[in-house]
From TrEMBL:
Pfam families: MDMPI_N, Wyosine_form. This is TIGR03084 family metal-binding protein. It comes from Nocardioides cremeus. Residues 189-240 form the tRNA wybutosine-synthesis domain. NCBIfam families: maleylpyruvate isomerase family mycothiol-dependent enzyme, TIGR03084 family metal-binding protein. The lineage of its organism: Bacteria, Bacillati, Actinomycetota, Actinomycetes, Propionibacteriales.
């Protein structure tokens, strides 16, 4: 296991712990609080994280006969309802009592950590899109945990202090540029963009060639909100230079699946 993966898993644990501490003391009404995601309560958000962590652990162990059978069962369910199986799973798990839901999520978090550490070096694990390395899966799980936690904090009228852990989200947002174009059935620009962001601690994070004519600058936090569709483009401090860079910011998404409706402008 690489040092990079170990550091990533530590950040994923810290992000999950922060959300855990927020929801652990909620009463039934608190768990039923609607979140910005239409039709999803706080319980649904946590249930989605629990289920996806479980499935990711199954994928990581799919090289064994038992693991392959379990993973194949998930794939068949996805094929039977490709546009609804994720929501269906979240809604089903969300029906658990709060204590049972937290216990299931806690077990899923632990199992995922162990499973990702066990993937042999150089091997990739299957997923609903292209196969992923353990580090890529860990990054994706961090992005989802962070984004869905934001929905919970918003629903409960709480504010989580941004940390430099969001670099994982920013990195994924940059790496998925061409994917965002493909989701919209558009051809991505041949030219690479320069993305230069200021982290919560004040550091500068940069991707892409310095000489690029198409650039994006601004706060890393706003960029992460945008690529997870937690904010409208016009409500960010991001500055795009070049028509292609500006267009990208209107379609950017760091998550798999179809483009969502995004957030309305405040």
């Amino acid at each position: 296991m690489s040092d990079l993966l170990e550091a990533l898993l530590g950040d994923l644990r810290a992000e999950g712990d922060q959300l855990w501490s927020t929801v652990a003391g909620l009463d039934a009404d608190g768990w039923a609080t609607p979140t910005p995601a239409p039709g999803w309560s706080v319980a649904t958000q946590v249930a989605h994280l629990a289920w996806t962590d479980e499935v990711a652990a199954l994928a990581a162990r799919s090289s064994t006969p038992e693991g392959k059978a379990a993973w194949d069962e998930v794939v068949l369910a996805a094929m039977a309802d490709p546009t609804g199986f994720v929501d269906t799973a979240a809604e089903e798990v969300a029906r658990l009592a709060p204590e049972a839901l937290l216990a299931r999520w806690g077990k899923a978090r632990d199992e995922l950590t162990v499973a990702l550490r066990e993937v042999p070096t150089g091997e990739k694990m299957p997923w609903f899109g292209p196969p992923m390395s353990p580090t890529s899966m860990g990054t994706a799980r961090f992005m989802e945990t962070w984004a869905h936690a934001l929905d919970v904090y918003d629903a409960l009228d709480q504010q989580a202090e941004p940390t430099d852990r969001i670099r994982h989200v920013a990195h994924l947002g940059v790496r998925t540029r061409d994917f965002a174009y493909s989701v919209h059935e558009q051809q991505p620009p041949a030219e690479q963009f320069r993305v230069q962001l200021v982290s919560p601690s004040g550091e500068t994070w940069a991707w892409g060639p310095e000489e690029a004519t198409q650039t994006v600058t601004g706060s890393a936090y706003d960029f992460c909100l945008l690529v997870t569709q937690r904010v409208h483009r016009d409500d960010t401090d991001l500055v795009a230079t070049g028509a292609d860079a500006e267009h990208w910011l209107t379609i950017a998404q760091a998550f798999a699946g179809p483009a969502g409706p995004g957030r309305e402008q405040r």
